[in-house]
Design goal:
It contains 10 helices and 11 strands. It has an 8-stranded parallel β-sheet. α2 packs parallel to α3 and α3 runs parallel beside α4. The longest helix is centred in the middle third of the chain and has 20 residues. The protein is globular. It starts with 5 loop residues before the first strand and ends in a 6-residue tail after the last helix.
């Protein structure tokens, strides 16, 4: 079962080679034609393969998974929000241009840019430059240091993204480290879902959805984290403790329909809960390709989910992503 030519909204890239980005910036140690290591100073961060940069490898995997188009976003370690704004602008410019150079040869790969979110004015300028150059949207991290998505500067950027019609993909990053989280990949298995949940809360309870144009197209990675599981608790808290729970004009459930999530939740019961919570028009196929915690084949749970009829399946595999992008995708 399934729709031919799905759109995968959650994939990542690392370009092969770039100039020195300055002190503290990530760099790439290339160990072989098919193997490299992302480095942070002298520390190894993540081993990656050719699927991160090689177009033919990526297209071959897409064909195997029946994926027509990928939205290709930066790997979050490159956001560099902790850097000096001037250096962050340089990092974003270099990597955004390398993404266009890497993927210009295929209309099946739609690059999303990164921006120096710690400097809202510079972030808006880089977004406009990248959209004009051919990027399809922007990926941002879910926080800038201790500032979440309801921070005034981030809201300024989101308002600008809405004004210029840029889809925004939000990805968790820089999860807290602690003895209880630094084993079993708990920062990724617990921290990432919690980070995404927290940032959806910031958008809702911080009044961002009340303040930002309703035309903002924004998607949260990893099925929105743990948000769908706890929407009832959030509504209950909003009604029971309005004295301390946020500044939103309406309870959290009112804002369903204002954001998208991807489908990379791995099991049919989790996908069913997600669809029933946020709505069938707000879930899009995502895989987290090419990283090992992603779903392969991409979209597998959506394609086999027995509770979806073919109209709903087609929306999740392709139609909703076209709405998110703001344009039809040929093929």
């Amino acid at each position: 079962m399934g729709v031919t030519g799905a759109i995968d909204v959650h994939t990542h890239y690392v370009p092969l080679g770039w100039p020195d980005l300055g002190p503290g910036a990530p760099w790439l140690r290339v160990d072989s034609e098919h193997d490299a290591m992302i480095m942070l100073g002298s520390a190894e961060f993540r081993r990656i393969g050719a699927s991160c940069w090689d177009v033919d490898t990526r297209l071959s995997d897409m064909d195997a998974d029946d994926i027509a188009v990928q939205l290709v976003s930066p790997t979050p370690v490159f956001f560099s929000y902790e850097a000096d704004p001037g250096q962050a602008v340089k990092i974003a410019t270099v990597l955004n241009d390398r993404a266009l150079e890497t993927y210009a040869a295929s209309d099946r790969l739609v690059p999303f840019c990164q921006v120096p979110l710690q400097d809202p004015d510079a972030a808006c300028r880089e977004l406009e430059r990248c959209l004009a150059a051919g990027h399809g949207g922007v990926e941002i991290g879910n926080h800038v240091g201790d500032r979440d998505l309801d921070d005034e500067g981030v809201v300024t950027f989101l308002q600008h993204a809405a004004a210029v019609g840029a889809p925004v993909f939000v990805h968790p990053w820089d999860m807290p480290s602690a003895p209880r989280l630094d084993r079993w990949m708990a920062r990724w298995l617990v921290g990432m879902p919690a980070e995404t949940h927290l940032s959806i809360l910031a958008m809702i309870l911080g009044g961002v959805f009340d303040a930002v144009d309703a035309g903002l197209r924004i998607c949260f990675a990893h099925g929105g984290g743990s948000f769908a599981n706890w929407l009832g608790r959030l509504d209950n808290a909003w009604h029971a403790r309005r004295d301390v729970v946020g500044t939103s004009e309406q309870p959290p459930s009112h804002y369903l329909g204002r954001f998208y999530v991807d489908s990379v939740v791995f099991t049919e019961p989790a996908l069913r809960l997600l669809v029933e919570t946020v709505g069938v028009d707000r879930v899009m196929t995502g895989s987290d390709y090419p990283y090992p915690l992603g779903e392969r084949p991409a979209g597998a749970v959506v394609r086999r989910a027995g509770f979806l009829d073919e109209t709903a399946r087609a929306k999740i595999l392709r139609g909703n992503a076209e709405q998110f992008l703001g344009r039809r995708i040929p093929g």
